[in-house]
Amino acid sequence: MAVSQPAVFFRKLGQKTLVLFNRFEACDHYDIDFISNFAGFFALPFPSFWFVFPLGIAGAGRHWRQSRKVRSLAAVLGLYGLTLIAFFSNARYRLPMLALAIPLAALALNDLIGFV
Questions:
Q1: Rounded CA gap, 106 and 16, in Å?
Q2: Distance of alpha carbon 1 from its chain centroid, rounded?
Q3: φ and ψ at 30, to 5 degrees?
Q4: What is the DSSP string of the chain?
Q5: Which of 44, 53, 57, 114 is 20 to 30 A from 108 (CA-CA)?
């Protein structure tokens, strides 16, 4: 398809990129909001992907030049994101990105507290 219809192929890649950054999680399991109606623990306001991921990107952008560890972590995060764009668009495959983004988000929150 990529060779015969390149415009359609790149349009699909663009849509999958938007899905990667989208707040809505199109899952193949029950939604946490639905489960929280039955199990009160899930109603606790834990930060989710939509909160942690942008902070992780900000932390990576801010400390990119200062630390080799941050560059490595951001590179792994970016490469994993590219594999999701190429192959998957499901939320459960997107979840491991949080394990990579949480340390970067902590850097961004530390910077934010310092700026305030």
A1: 27
A2: 28
A3: -65, 145
A4: -TTT-HHHHHHHHHHHHHHHH-SS---SS--HHHHHTT-GGGGS----HHHHHHHHHHHHHHHTTT-HHHHHHHHHHHHHHHHHHHH---HHHHTHHHHHHHHHHHHHHHHHHHH-
A5: 44
Tokens 């340390």 -> residue:
103
* pTM score of the predicted model: 0.69
Q: Which amino acid, 102?
A: I
CA distance 101 to 57: 7
